[in-house]
């Protein structure tokens, strides 16, 4: 909205519609600032150490918002030049200054608030660590009960704080690491309970002590990792060096190879050769593995050899093209690029098949948990010899599963899934020996109910991780087959190669400066309409309502199309825009279906009007889809199609601005929902009570095992009478 005001072009002739739109934007900015500052001031009052800084930033932001509102108070001015008071038309620099002050003060408030959140998490972690130290030293059940009750409550608080933080993280890699650490803490909290009880019951048992120490150590590592993610730091200033996967290596290599089409001189042949060598070194994880089938091993070795040959041919043609850029050489270079990329795709497909087929076979084989069942039975029998035999089998199973995780990491496809594979590998590595020590303890004390319960808990953790691996395998296959994109945003952009079957694809076209200038007015109107739609959707109390969700999705897509008219955003080419227009129209059709369903809830008097508007929407969306799919050639025709798509999108958004308040009014009238007008939620420092209900479904993260942990803490009935 601020950008809209700053980029507003002065014109001698100004319509009432333009004046009203400008005033609307100014008022919206001021209202938004007011709500934001109210929260900031509440935070300041609850945190004395930052109160002064926060208060100053809030005052600056409020002042800037009010200035913008005053300068845009122009709707009633038919002849602004005859009016004495200053407006955006007479003082453009005033708006620029106010906008700069507003953005800097808002940023300052956000940074200060973030510091407070980080401090809360660190304080909570320190409390958990201090209580853990006390738990390690207890020598009686009574003392343990009291301290564990406190520990449980502290873990619940830490779970809520880190859950909110995980939701707020933008970096998918950090989000995945946080999820992994929190999963460890969830499982270890229950393990710590039973392992500590076992150690207290059998204080002279070495295997029980080893079992307990392992849980405490793993929890400390997980707590440390959470703080590293939150504070964005590493111990002793180390840099995190994650191992490169085959998938990411091939992706980067292909990008470099395909970049030769645009620039023959941007990298050296040594650079490319080194990249391929690294990829082929990683394939040795497959060819050296005892669990890779003979067929897969042979294919991987053949493709590795072919990749070297294709690169040699590519380098040869590339060097010639640098010296003499003839048409024949450039065609030969194109063929060499295609052959090299094709070979790398086949290699990627082969390692993917090797990893996923191994994983599927192992998961199917171990899903009956035969070894775990045998350990429980022989442990209760006190059969030390049989326990030793089955612990060897579990160790073999652990090695197989660890190898499976390592190979899956190479083909996982995204950084979050890579991290999930690494987490799974760590879990099998650690849990295997813990099951063995728990089983040995039970075999030494076969009548101990606590030792039996402890083994059950560790076995459940193993079974749970195996179950998670099945889900992970499905997700990896989804990514490989293109059913799940790397970017989880509101856009449905075509991925390179997915929508173009022919090798010689159409060259992407961008709007030039002159075309951007022509379409700027239409784009600005679209931007104002997105603001109106967002304002209408915010009035709905039920943000999960299907009508609201479709409206928000359409508004987001329309905004990305507006950014395209400015040469900004994720829509880079006209093809991107046309594809986005198709998705926008499809979303509009879904909204029309939701409106038809909603019409069944309204009174007969109101139904015809709603159905009429829904039919209008369907018609407009069909027209937009026809326009977006129409084939055109030439620069002029392409621009005409762009103009038509933006125009028809604007018309749909105009209708949407009428539909949303109508639906809200009918909903209120028929009392079919929970009310439409949503009050602004008050700030609560301890967001533990508020949860994440106001967040979108994609960002909602369950706090780890809180329900079960709270119940466990509340019902501390594990003191045995004997």
UniProtKB/TrEMBL annotation:
GO MF: actin filament binding
Main location: cytoplasm
GO cellular component, one term: cytoplasm
InterPro entries (alphabetical): Alpha-catenin/vinculin-like_sf, CTNNAL1, Vinculin/catenin
GO terms classed as biological process: cell adhesion; Rho protein signal transduction
Subcellular location per the Swiss-Prot or TrEMBL entry: Cytoplasm
Alphabetical list of Pfam families matching this protein: Vinculin (PF01044)
Keywords tagged on the record: Cytoplasm
SUPFAM superfamilies in UniProt: alpha-catenin/vinculin-like
PANTHER family: ALPHA-CATULIN
Family: Belongs to the vinculin/alpha-catenin family.
Name used for this protein in its record: Alpha-catulin
Native source species: Fulmarus glacialis
Phylogenetic classification of the source organism: Eukaryota, Metazoa, Chordata, Craniata, Vertebrata
């Amino acid at each position: 909205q601020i950008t809209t005001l700053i980029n507003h072009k002065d014109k001698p002739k100004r319509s009432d519609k333009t004046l009203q739109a400008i005033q609307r934007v100014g008022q919206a900015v001021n209202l938004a600032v007011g709500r934001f500052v109210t929260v900031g001031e509440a935070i300041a009052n609850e945190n004395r150490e930052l109160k002064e800084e926060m208060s100053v930033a809030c005052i600056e932001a409020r002042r800037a918002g009010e200035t913008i509102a005053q300068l845009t108070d122009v709707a009633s001015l038919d002849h602004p030049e005859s009016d004495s008071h200053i407006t955006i038309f007479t003082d453009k620099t005033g708006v620029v200054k106010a906008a700069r002050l507003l953005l800097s003060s808002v940023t300052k408030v956000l940074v200060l608030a973030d510091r407070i959140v980080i401090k809360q998490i660190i304080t909570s972690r320190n409390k958990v660590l201090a209580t853990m130290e006390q738990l390690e030293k207890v020598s009686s059940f009574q003392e343990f009960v009291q301290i564990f009750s406190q520990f449980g409550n502290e873990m619940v608080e830490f779970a809520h704080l880190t859950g909110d933080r995980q939701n707020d993280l933008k970096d998918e890699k950090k989000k995945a690491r946080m999820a992994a650490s929190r999963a460890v803490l969830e499982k270890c909290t229950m393990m710590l309970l039973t392992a500590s009880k076992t150690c207290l019951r059998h204080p002279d048992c070495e295997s029980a002590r080893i079992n307990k120490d392992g849980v405490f150590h793993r929890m400390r590592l997980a707590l440390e990792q959470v703080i590293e993610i939150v504070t964005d730091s590493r111990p002793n200033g180390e840099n995190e060096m994650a191992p490169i996967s085959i998938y990411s290596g091939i992706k980067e290599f292909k990008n470099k190879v395909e970049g030769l089409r645009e620039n023959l001189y941007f990298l050296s042949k040594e650079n490319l050769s080194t990249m391929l060598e690294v990829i082929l070194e990683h394939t040795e994880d497959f060819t050296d593995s005892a669990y890779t089938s003979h067929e897969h091993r042979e294919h991987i070795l053949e493709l590795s050899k072919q990749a070297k040959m294709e690169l040699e041919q590519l380098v040869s043609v590339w060097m010639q093209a640098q010296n003499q850029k003839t048409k024949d050489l450039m065609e030969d270079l194109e063929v060499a690029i295609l052959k090299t990329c094709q070979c790398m795709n086949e290699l990627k497909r082969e390692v993917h098949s090797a990893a996923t087929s191994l994983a599927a076979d192992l998961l199917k084989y171990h899903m009956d948990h035969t070894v775990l069942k045998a350990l429980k039975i022989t442990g209760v029998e006190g059969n030390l010899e049989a326990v030793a035999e089955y612990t060897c089998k579990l160790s073999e199973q652990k090695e197989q599963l660890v190898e499976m995780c390592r190979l899956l990491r190479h083909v996982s496809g995204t950084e979050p899934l890579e991290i999930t594979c690494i987490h799974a590998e760590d879990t099998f590595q650690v849990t295997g020996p813990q099951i063995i020590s728990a089983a040995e303890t039970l075999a030494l004390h076969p009548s101990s109910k606590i030792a039996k319960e402890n083994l059950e808990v560790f076995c459940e953790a193993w079974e749970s991780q195996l179950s998670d691996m099945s889900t992970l395998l499905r997700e990896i296959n989804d990514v490989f087959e293109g059913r799940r994109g790397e970017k989880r945003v509101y856009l449905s952009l075509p991925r390179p190669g997915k929508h173009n079957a022919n090798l010689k694809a159409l060259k992407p076209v961008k709007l030039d400066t002159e075309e951007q200038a022509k379409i700027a007015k239409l784009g600005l109107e679209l931007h104002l309409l997105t603001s109106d739609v967002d304002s209408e959707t915010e009035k709905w109390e039920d943000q999960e309502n299907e009508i609201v969700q479709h409206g928000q999705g359409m508004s987001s897509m329309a905004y990305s199309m507006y950014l395209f008219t400015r040469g900004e955003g994720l829509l880079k080419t006209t093809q991107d825009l046309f594809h986005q227009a198709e998705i926008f129209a499809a979303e509009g059709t879904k909204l029309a279906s939701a409106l038809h369903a909603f019409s069944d809830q309204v009174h007969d008097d109101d139904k015809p009007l709603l159905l009429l508007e829904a039919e209008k929407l369907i018609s407009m969306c069909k027209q937009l889809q026809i326009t977006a799919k129409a084939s055109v050639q030439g620069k002029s025709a392409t621009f005409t199609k762009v103009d038509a798509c933006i125009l028809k999108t604007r018309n749909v958004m105009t209708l949407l601005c009428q539909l949303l308040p109508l639906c809200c009014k009918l909903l209120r009238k028929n009392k079919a929902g929970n009310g439409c007008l949503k009050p602004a939620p008050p700030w609560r420092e301890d967001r533990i009570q508020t949860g994440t209900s106001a967040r979108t479904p994609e960002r909602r993260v369950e706090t780890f095992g809180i329900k079960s942990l709270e119940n466990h803490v509340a019902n501390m009935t594990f003191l045995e009478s004997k």
